[in-house]
């Protein structure tokens, strides 16, 4: 009875959030506002199953940039953004990047497969957590919630609400992190651009004055 109460409470909160959420974007055209410092994630504690029923964890994706999307078929904003996630996976999915759409539907694999078939989702894999444990493990307050994870398995940023994931600003931001060598942390796009401009100005000043750049 207690577990049912907990599930209903979480589901109700998610439904309320779904009804109220709207597309969210930040300055400079970037979807995510990166944290100053990446956050550690309990990768091995985020457990789920793939379409074949194989047990997996987020640790299985370490070494790739990951766009983790927590969603459900009963969430209208989630449904709205799924085609753009499908396009994003088609465009960038591979050895350096993966969209991980993690469904919290109680119906599990069958429910998600039916949704994919009905909505012509052909590039996204199926990942399910019918226990909804991921909501607690990652402190998810509502669906959809999307977390950007770097190659080291650290959380770079997260956003709540639907997004057009195939728009150029999103693709550019993700490519920025994909380009970082494994084992190194990429600067946030805005910060990297600021450093680039500063270094250019320093080099120009040094050329003009004859001083060596610092």
Defining key terms:
about 210 residues; alpha/beta; Glutaredoxin; seven-stranded mixed beta sheet; 6 helices; globular; disordered N terminus; disordered C terminus; Thiol-disulfide isomerase and thioredoxins; redox-active center
Descriptive notes:
The structure is a single chain. This protein is of the alpha/beta class. The chain has one domain: Glutaredoxin (3-Layer(aba) Sandwich). It contains six helices and seven strands, in the order αβββαβαβαββαα. A seven-stranded mixed beta sheet has the order 2-1-5-4-3-6-7. It starts with a helix and ends in a 5-residue tail after the last helix. The model is unreliable at about 1-10, about 10-15, about 20-30 and about 190-214 (pLDDT under 50).
């Amino acid at each position: 009875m207690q577990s049912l109460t907990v599930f209903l409470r979480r589901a109700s909160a998610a439904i309320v959030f779904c009804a109220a959420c709207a597309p969210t974007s930040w300055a400079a055209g970037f979807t995510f506002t990166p944290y100053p410092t990446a956050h550690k994630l309990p990768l091995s504690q985020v457990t789920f199953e793939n379409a074949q029923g194989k047990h997996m964890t987020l640790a299985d994706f370490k070494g790739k940039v990951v766009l983790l999307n927590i969603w459900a078929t009963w969430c209208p904003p989630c449904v709205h953004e799924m085609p753009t996630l499908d396009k994003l996976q088609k465009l960038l999915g591979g050895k350096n990047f993966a969209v991980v759409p993690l469904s919290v539907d109680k119906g599990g694999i069958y429910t998600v497969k039916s949704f994919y078939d009905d909505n012509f989702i052909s590039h996204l894999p199926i990942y399910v957590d019918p226990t909804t444990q991921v909501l607690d493990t990652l402190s998810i307050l509502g669906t959809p919630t999307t977390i950007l994870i770097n190659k080291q398995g650290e959380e770079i940023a997260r956003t709540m609400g639907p997004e057009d994931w195939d728009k150029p600003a999103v693709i550019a931001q993700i490519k920025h992190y994909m380009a970082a060598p494994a084992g190194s942390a990429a600067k946030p796009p805005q910060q990297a651009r600021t450093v680039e401009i500063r270094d250019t100005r320093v080099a120009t000043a040094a050329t003009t004055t004859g001083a060596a750049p610092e």
